[in-house]
Predict the structure.
Amino acid sequence: MRTIVYFAIGILFGITMFKSEAASWFRIYEMFQFKAFHMYGIIGSALFCGAIITYLLKKFKAKSILDGSEIVIADKASGWKRYLFGGLFFGFGWAISGA
Amino acid sequence: MIDFVLQPWPWYFSGPMIAFVLFLLLWTGKSFGMSSNLRTLCAALGAGKKVSFFQFDWKAQRWNLVVALGAVVGGYVAANFLSVSTAVVISESAIKQLNSMGIQDAGQAYMPASLFSLEAFSSPKTLLILSLGGFFVGFGARYAGGCTSGHAISGLSNFQLPSLIAVIGFFIGGLFVNHFLLPYLL
C-alpha cells in the first residue's frame, strides 16, 4: 500500500519535472544565461508555496496521514564548508548535464 | 483542461505542483530529496563494506527509491502520452547562441541530441562530458547533503541557512561552468 502511495507521488513528480521543462538541458542553459524568467519562476513559486506549507505543518504540529506519527521536519546540520564546496561541485555538474 | 495539460506547463503552475509534491511527502511522514537515493543505491549495492559513509540502514530509505522510480515512469508518461510537442521553446537569443556553438536543435527538441542520444554515446568526447557532469552532480549533491530538491526547495522552504549556502554554491558553480567552460566543452 505504502509502496503504491510513494510510486504515485513519484509519477506526479516525474510528470511535473517533464512538463515544467525543469528537466530540460535547454532550460538549465537558458537559466544560467539569465535569458528567461521560466526557471526562476518555477523555483520561486515552489519556494513561496513550500515555505507556507512547511510553516503550517509545523505550526499545527500536523500528523502523518499514513500512521499518525508527528511530522518532523529536520534542521540541516550546521556548518558551511561542505555546503559551499559540495554546492559548487553540484553546480558544475548542473550546468554540464542539466540535471 | 486537457489542452492545458498537454502544453508545456507555465512556471506559475509548475512551481506550486512541485510544492504539492513536497507537501505529499511531508504529509506521509517523509521528506523531499532526490539525490539521497544515490547514497541509498550505493549502500544497497554493498558499498558499506568498504566506506563507512555507506553504512546505514538503507532499507529505511526504500520509499525514496520508489519515488525516484515513479519519477522515471512519470517522465516517460509525460513525454509519450501527455505532450503534443516535446520541443522546449527557449528564448530566441539563447537559441541563436546555442546554434553558434554547434547545437542546432535548440528550440526544437527537449534536450540536445549531440549530448543525449544513442549516437552520442559512441562519441568518446560526449561520454567524457556526461561522465564529468554525472560525477560532479553525484559527488556535489552528496557532499553538500542535497540537490535542487533537498536544498533549494525543502531546505529553503524551512529557512535553513546551510541550504542557502548550498544553493549559492549551486549558482556560483553553474554560472562559472555555463559561461566559461561550456563554450569550449560543447
User: Anything to note?
Assistant: The helical segments of chain A are 2-19, 25-32, 38-59, 81-97. Chain A touches chain B through 83 residues (CB under 8 Å). The mean pLDDT of chain A is 97. Residues 38-59 of chain A form the longest helix (22 residues).
